[in-house]
Amino acid sequence: MEDLRQKYIDRIAQAGDEDSLESLRVEALGKKGEISLKMRELGKMSPEERKTAGPALNALKDEINSALAAKKEALGDAALEARLQEEWLDVTLPGRSRRAGSIHPISQVTEEVTAIFADMGFAVAEGPQIDTDWYNFDALNIPGHHPARAEMDTFYMHRDEGDNRPPHVLRTHTSPVQIRHMEKHGAPCRIIAPGRVYRADYDQTHTPMFHQVEGLAIDREISMANLKWVLEEFFAAFFEVKGIKTRFRASHFPFTEPSAEVDIQCSWEDGQLKIGEGDGWLEVLGSGMVHPKVLEAAGVDPKAWQGFAFGMGIDRIAMLKYGIPDLRAFFDSDLRWLRHYGFSGLQVPTLHGGLSR
Ligand code: PHE
Predict the structure, then answer these.
(1) What is the pTM of this model?
(2) On the chain, which terminus has fewer CB atoms closer than 10 Å, C or N?
(3) Where are the domains positioned within the chain?
């Protein structure tokens, strides 16, 4: 019995992992284990012998069991200790810094414009950048032979040979959103529609893709006076100059009657552009009273409803507000430019927060 005990105690002490512990347990205490077999022999013993052998075997079984349990715990602790050593982490090391991206001036200005018009009750509407020639031209009272179509330097989409339907266009302005919005929601309405537009043109102040924001307000009695007030409110808030002067010049658009181009007051001193002072003027948008034919095309009764529309160059007003001289640089994706003119992602423009900082 003592040999048996010594043998298992030694082997348990030497076991290197849980698997060998388990085979030891089976070998000693399993169904056909050495100690189990000995216990079965108790039945054949005389009552005298059994009296000593029985308790001794039970004690041996308990001892082996607790030796196994103790060793198992020790092995677990050792494994954990080894893992802790291996996975040791120096939490005092400084982190790796990453360069944060920035918000593009166009995105920033779009947010600013949206915040200002939202405050005046305008919702945001959207339309597709690839549109039919009907939405981009015909519905806006620009028929096929109209010179405005040629002036727009339109990009046309491809049509297969033999497909004689008029090709879709990359929208040349945001005005088609007027039609799409009125068709769907009718009158009255007050919306702005910011987005990308396309014209085949490229120099310091023109890129083939640029951004406009359309404005549309339709109701029973909306007039040019309302247009003027809304735009002056907008410019004062956007350029953060109180009482900024605007100039409405008579103009012509097929989709508005009467029409006006709007300039804002500015000065040029030593090559420095200042908004809201001096006696220079900068053109920033086209506008007018929505033409009855446009209302009709969009399913709105021109005898019951009227209103104004305007289309403003977002890139243009971004250049003016933030003193960015070349429009083409907006779309070069030059990281140095983006870091210089970009805005922090955490500073969302709001009216009470002073729009931008
Ligand atoms: N769509 C015109 C343009 O792109 C601007 C405009 C919009 C003019 C709405 C009048 C009314 O030049």
Answers:
(1) 0.73
(2) C
(3) 2-86, 105-341
